[in-house]
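Running this now, will post back.
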Amino acid sequence: MLGKNPDSVILIQWVQFVPERVILLPQVSARELALRILIAVEEEGAYANIALHRILEKYRPGKLDRAFTTELAYGTLRSLNTLDWILARFVKKPLESQTAAVRNILRLGVYQLIFMDRVPPSAACNEGAELARKHGHPGSVKFVNGVLRSVSRQCGEISYPTLLENPLEHISLRYSHPAWMVKRWLEEFGPEGTIALCCANNKPAPNTIRTNTLKITRSDLAERLKAEGLLVSETVYAPEGLKIEGFYSLGSLASFREGLFQVQDESSMLAGRALMPSPGSFVLDACSAPGGKTTHLAQLMENRGLILGVDIHPHKLSLIEENCLRLGIDIVQGRTGDARTLPEELYNLADFVLVDAPCSGLGVLKRRPDARWRKNPDELPALVKLQAEILEGASRCVRDGGVLVYSTCTLIREENAGQVENFLAGHPDFALEDLRAYLPGALDQEGTLAGGQLQIYPHLHGMDGFFIARMRKKGSDKRMENSFIRKEGSSTSARQD
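Update: finished.
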C-alpha cells in the first residue's frame, strides 16, 4: 500500500557503522532507490528481491518510502513490456539507444502516470526530470521531461489491441506477460481464465509463514505476532500457516529469532502434508535447499527419525543447517549430492521420498516481478529431461510400500502431470495414491485429488501455483529395520561426499 505522501524524501540520514569509521549515507528519495534497483536488475543481472533487500537495508528508508520504493521497482519490472510498448509511441529512437539510467527513468515515470492514480502527473514528470539531471546530461533532462509530459497529456488516448481482434497481444500488453506464456495459457484456460491468472500474478504476494509446531501452536504464535505489532490472519488450507503484515524485517522480530516460525508459502506447505511422513521414519528430501520443506517434514515427524536432505550445491546446505538450528530441529542431515545419481547404499531404503524438482517457476511469478522476463521457453525441454532424471534417481531409494511425492512450483503440464504420466509408464511398481486423506477437499477444483494429483493455481486458490503428486511403491508396507538410521545417527550436520 502506498503512503499518504509518495513524493516524500528521506529526511534523516542513516548512519552506517563500520570498524573505526562512520559513514553518513546521503539523503535518497524513494524514486532514486527504485531506479538503483532497476539498474542493478538490468545491468548486473541482479534478482529484484535481492536488489531490493540490499538497497533497503543499506539506506533504511521510513515505512512510507519503503512501501513506495517497493511499489515503484516491482511495478515497473512487472510491467516492462507494456511500458516499453507505450514509450515506443513517444520516443523516435529505440529505447536501447538510451543509457540504462535514462531508459529506466522513463519507465518509472510512465509507470506512475499509467498505473499509479495517487501520484500527481506533475510529480511523476518533475521527479523524472530531477533523476535525469543526476544521472544524465542537460539534454537528458529536456528529453525525459518532454517524453513524460507528452505521455501525461495523451495517456487517455493510448489504446491496446482489442481482446476480440487479437487476444494474445491484448492480454500480453494489457496485463504485462510474455507472449509465449499468454499463448500457452490461452490454449489451456481461454481468454477469461488467462486474464484472471495474469491479474493474480500482478498482485503483491502475501508474506506467509509456517508455525513451528515443535515450539508453539498457530493460535499462540498469532497472538505473539500481534503483540509484536503485526497484522495476522490464518491461511485457508494449511493448518500451520499465517499471513503477516506490518513488519520491517524478519530479523527485527524476536519470534523469528527464537525459531517460532519459518517463511514458507501456503502451497509449499501442502507438499509436506501430501507426503506426511510418520514419526521415526527415514525420509529422503532429494532437492532440499534451502530447507523450507525439509524443516516442515521434521515438524510433521515430531523431530523423530531421520531426514537426509540432499542438494547439489554444497554452499546451500548451510542454509538448511541454519534453519534447523533456529527452529530446534536435530533430525536433518545434509549431504552434497546429485539426486540423479544417488549412492546405491540408499536404494530401497527410504520410507518417504520428496522430489521438489527444479522447474520453470511459472507458479510464483507474483513473488519475482522480473522472473517473467527471464524465462525462456526454449529451456523447457532440458528442464523436463532434468526433472525426469531426478525423479528416476530418487525413486530408486523408495522401499517397497514406501511413498514418493513429486512437486513443482509451476503450471506447465509437461513438468507436472505429463512428467508423472511418463514416470508411471516406465515404473509399473509405482501407482498414484488418493490425496483426499492428506489435503483439504476444497482444493479439488478439477476433481483430481482422488487420482493422486493436484494442480494449484494462483487465480483459483489464492496462493502460489504448485503441483503435487503422491505415489506409492507396490509391495509390503511393513517397515524394514533401518540400518541407515542406525549408521548415520540423527544429528543435524552437513557433509560432502
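Residues 1-24, 486-497 have pLDDT under 50 and may be disordered. More later if anyone needs it.
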